[in-house]
Amino acid sequence: MQTLLNIFSYWDSALAVVLVFGGLIFFHELGHFIAFRAFKVGVITFSIGMGPKIWKVKRGKTEYCISALPFGGYVAGVGEYDDEVESLGFTQEDAVTSRAPWQRLIIAAAGPLMNLLIAWLIYWGLTAASGLAVTQPQVGGVLPQSAAEAAGLKSGDMITAIDGVKIERWAQVPEIVGESGGRTMQVEVERDGKKQVFAMTPTRRERTNIFGETEIAWLIGVQASGVVRYEEKGFFESAVLGLQKTWDMIDLTLTSVKKMITGSVAAESVGGPIMIAQMLGEQAKVGIVPLLLLAALISVNLGLLNLFPIPVLDGGAIVFCIIEMIIRRPVPEKAQEWLMRIGAGLLIALMVFATFNDVMRWFK
After folding, report:
1. For residue 332, what is the DSSP state?
2. Residue 340 pLDDT class (50, 70, 90 cuts)
3. Distance CA 271, CA 259 (A)
4. Which of 33, 127, 195, 211 is most deeply packed, by most CB within 10 A?
């Protein structure tokens, strides 16, 4: 019986990976497709996946297909990859090369922007349906030899105020303590329905931040219990909160990339498709909400990655369009070709490195 349950669990996880990856790729390519159509550019192929086509159907002049390799996809516009236009049933007026550079820039940016839009819609929808998740200021653990232990704080205590400032969410605790400068603070807690006040003097101690970096900060030595409450929000307020959450994830992603480039975060932390698939599988077992939250984060990462100014990515195409608008002529084809090869080489190297990291984690 347990073996049967494990099989079902495995297939549920595999299905989650396929649906999330496939869905995010579909919406990315749909962004490009809509932009092509908006500027009346002919579309030859709309593919989810790369490599050999395992299913296809033709509607009008466009072939819609699913390809064997699930990590990727493409929308082939007329004249984008092949100069033969008439032989495909199109005219030169249908070719993307006949469009102004600002139009081609929008076409290139439409895919990544669709991914950011999808992330926003997920955050918006979850907030409107379930409310805003807020981590409660409840003590989950007290570190040994800390100010909290010396004062007598216990697991389960609810912090209600610090130096007269009302505490409503856990994020306020490290923020206020961190700004204390080491002065003695009056921490008010609720324990067994009764209020108690403890005097604590923060100390400078090491802690690990969300990027895995060790930093020194003023601490009283408490850990969050992780208990969450949900605050009901209106439809339009949820939209604003969803936008804010999307921006927070954009900022977090860019900060992570910056730290990896500067070396403050170890290169070993870079994850590839195996790690992402594992994370999706784990969240699928927990529930639909955690899975959707991870899907939104991946969508943000996918959108931003494609906006990086690397040839072969959408960001590289955007840079070529900007240069063309500045110098008033296209970047020479030979230069584009060599830059695309370099960009492809960099991406392949990054993918191999990330996959190597995934494999090494697997055996740890």
Report:
1. P
2. confident
3. 15
4. 127
Place of tokens 């790369």: 50
Amino acid at position 197, single letter:
V
More confident residue, 80 or 62: 62
Residue 1 has pLDDT above 60, yes or no: no
Task: Please report how the helices 235-262 and 288-307 are oriented relative to each other, as an axis angle in degrees rounded to 10.
Answer: 60
> Considering just the CA atoms, what is the radius of gyration of the chain in Å?
26
Q: Return d(Cα 238, Cα 228) in angstroms, integer.
A: 18
C-alpha 92/C-alpha 85 separation (Å) is 7
- Evaluate whether 208 touches 189 at the Cβ level (below 8 Å): no
Q: At what angle do helices 101-130 and 235-262 cross, to 10 degrees?
A: 120
Q: What is the dihedral of CA 287, 113, 131, 14, to 10 degrees?
A: 0
Quickly list H helices, the chain: 2-38, 101-130, 147-151, 172-178, 235-262, 273-286, 288-307, 314-327, 333-362
Question: What distance in Å separates the CA atoms of residue 213 and residue 220, rounded to the nearest whole number?
Answer: 19
Q: Is the pLDDT of residue 5 over 50?
A: no
Of the candidates 217, 193, 214, the one whose C-alpha atom is nearest the C-alpha of residue 203 is 217
pLDDT at 361 over 70: no
Task: Give me 249's structure tokens.
Answer: 């994830």
| Residue position matching structure tokens 């497709």 | 33
The stretches of 46-171 forming alpha helices (DSSP H) are 101-130, 147-151
Distances in whole angstroms, Cα of residue 81 to Cα of each of 40, 43, 49, 337:
17, 11, 17, 12
- Residue 169, CA atoms < 13 Å, CB-side half-sphere: 10
How crowded is residue 213: how many other Cβ atoms within 10 Å of its Cβ?
12
Percentage of residues in the chain having pLDDT higher than 90: 32
